[in-house]
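User: Quick sanity check before I run a bigger batch. Here is a single chain. Can you write out its predicted 3D structure?
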Amino acid sequence: MCPPNYLFLAVVCFPLGLLATARPYTLTKAFEIVDAIGRNPSGPVEPADWNVALTRLVGAAFALVGGGAAVTCLL
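Assistant: Done. Predicted structure follows.
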């Protein structure tokens, strides 16, 4: 039987990691919009390039951890 924490990693981290890897700009822009709530409007909010790259990198790590947990659960 698969431990509950491995199952959690497989079910939650793997899809979120794939999303962050496939659509890092969209996800980062959503985070920037939420972060800008309460500030004086000064134009459209755009994420920095380093933030988009970091989101893609962390998303790939999440997908690897979630995929590894899924493989462990299936074996």
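Residues 4-35+46-74 form one domain.

User: Great, the batch can go ahead then.
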